[in-house]
Structures are given as C-alpha cells and as structure tokens.
Specification:
Radius of gyration: 22 Å
Number of helices: 9
Order of helices and strands: HEEHEHHEEHHHEEHH
Number of strands: 7
Distance between the termini: 39 Å
Number of domains: 1
CATH class: Alpha Beta
Oligomer: single chain
Amino acid sequence: MKTLSVFLITLFSLFAASTQAAAPAWKEGTHYTLSDSVNRQTVAPGQTLITEVFSYACPACNAFAPTMRKLREAMPKAQFEYVPAGFIAAEDWPMFQRAFCTAQVLHIAEKTHDAMFKAVWTTGELATMDPASSRLKKPLPSLEEAAKFYQREAGVKAADFVAAANSFSVDLKIKAADEFIRNYKVTSTPTLIINGKYITDVHMAGGYDQLIDLIKFLSTKDRG
C-alpha cells in the first residue's frame, strides 16, 4: 500500500512538472507591453475587451484575419473592437480607414468586415496591388468603388454611403481612431490591446496560436 502511495505521488509530481514546463512563461517586455497611456480604454469589472488596430490594405492584417475569427470563437463572451489605421497614404490606407468608419456609423461594419478583406485580397475587387506587375495600382481603389462594395454586401445605396463618408460624424470617428493609435503608441498592424492595458502582436507572442493563448492569459491577468 505504501509503495502504491509513493508511486502515485511520484506520478502526480511528474505530471505537474510536465504541465508547468509546457505552460508558456509570458513576460512583460518580451511577449507584451504595458500601456502608459493616461487615456486608457475603460473596461467594466469582469469584462474582457480585445481591440485590434488594423487596415484592410495591410497584408499582415489579412493573414491574421483567420486567427481573429478563431479568437472570437474561443472567447465568445469577450467584447471585440476594431480601430482602423491610416498609416500609409501611398497604399490607400486612409481611404479604407474612412470606409470602415463610415460602415461603423451606418452600423454595417461587423456584417461586412470579413467580406472587405476578401474584396481586397481574394477577389481583387478593391485590391491595391496589380497582380500582373506586383506594383501598386494607379489609380488606387476609390471611396466610390468601396461604396459599390457596401451597396452589394449591406444594401446601403452607394450614393448614401459616399454622403455619409463625407459627414462630420465620420470625420470624428477618424479623429478618434487616430487619437487612439497615438495614445497607445501603435506603429504597426495588426496590434492587439487587451482590456485597454496590455499591448501585443503576433511577432511578440511567437506565432498565431501562441497569440491566442497569450490573449487568454492577459484577459484574466488582473482578476483574483
């Protein structure tokens, strides 16, 4: 009986040790950083907020999109937000930023989000690159062309979309997005902010699957 007890204790110890070894040792400054912004997002107690800074014109964001869908499935109770960046004017980022902010104002952003990535990177309807030459298109996709996409995908008349895109409400949305990016010192996309506090990306996490595990960890880091 004593031998069996010793065996079970040894087995449990080995299991615990292997589990501990397999668990990632997430480190601040290596796998994520802590925001020093005085204007952090406010998150209700017990709530998880995951914010992605992105652009439809960003190839890395397109590559990350399937992982973001996996993350939403893995964390169905979390709140997800998207902040569009307008970093690279030469690659049409400001146009896509305005288009997304317009879709937000018209309450069609979530419905059309995945389809817009496909329009840019799969079907080529709103592609910024010419596949034949691998160079930027001239001219680049216009807001009017984006409006036709939203008309087809969401039923909003193209003329109404363009009118909304040039409204004061959308200008405020763009200004708020730019301010958010400055406050969190975001310089690349996609960047993830968890609970308005922790900042990370695919490279810092060490890969797509690792990023999901890291976000799960950070989402509960401050809870007792």
